[in-house]
Each structure stands twice: as C-alpha cells, then as structure tokens.
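2024-03-11 09:14:02 DEBUG pipeline.ingest accepted 1 chain
2024-03-11 09:14:02 DEBUG pipeline.ingest length=120
2024-03-11 09:14:03 DEBUG pipeline.predict start
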Amino acid sequence: MSLDTASDDLVDPDPLTSRLISEVFGDEPAVRSDASPLHAVETSPGPVADMLLVTRGRPARQSGVERFGDALRAAGDQVTIIDANPLTHAEVNAHLGEPDDDIVTPAVESFLDGCDDHRN
C-alpha cells in the first residue's frame, strides 16, 4: 500500500520532488535505479504484490502513480488507485482511520480485508 507518494520513479522523479530525492539517494543513476520501486517492478520476472495506491495533487504527480500502477499490472498484479483529492498530503495520513473519512479509510480497509482473505 502506498499513501500519496511521489517517489515511485527515483530515476526520473517529479520535478517538485527531485531535490528531495537527490538529497536522500544522491545523483548516481545506478543507485537511484537500484532503489526505485518502478525500476524494480519493470525488471521483475513476474508479479510483485497486489497494491493499493493513494494519490492526489497535480496531474504530473498522479500520472507518476498511474505509471507505477500500469507497471504493476503488466507484471501481473492487481492494482487499485484512489484519487484522494481534495485532501492534502498531510490530510491523507491524518484522516486515515477517522470515522468521518470517506475517501482513504474505506479503500484501505477494503484492501486490508482482501489481504486477509488471501491468507485464509
């Protein structure tokens, strides 16, 4: 499960997160590639994990999540993408689990229930 991240592609990140990614991972392409969730999925020989991806914000940010979701689907995984607009990044996390949240919490509960079903 990914709650509103903009760092699925560490090789070619969203321009607004590029500086932060450089600070954390440096600028060496091989290091970024090795750490990139998108790269890991694109080079995997098969399914990685079913995923719930929560996104919001600008179209470029959302398209990055769509690209990651598409790569997971191509690998054979089931993917659900939730658009959490109009919430801010902080609100996505703060509202999770709140009884009046009708955007993120129901999707997370449904996803986790499905994970539990796979174990039985």
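2024-03-11 09:14:41 DEBUG pipeline.report The first helix runs from residue 18 to 25.
2024-03-11 09:14:41 DEBUG pipeline.predict end
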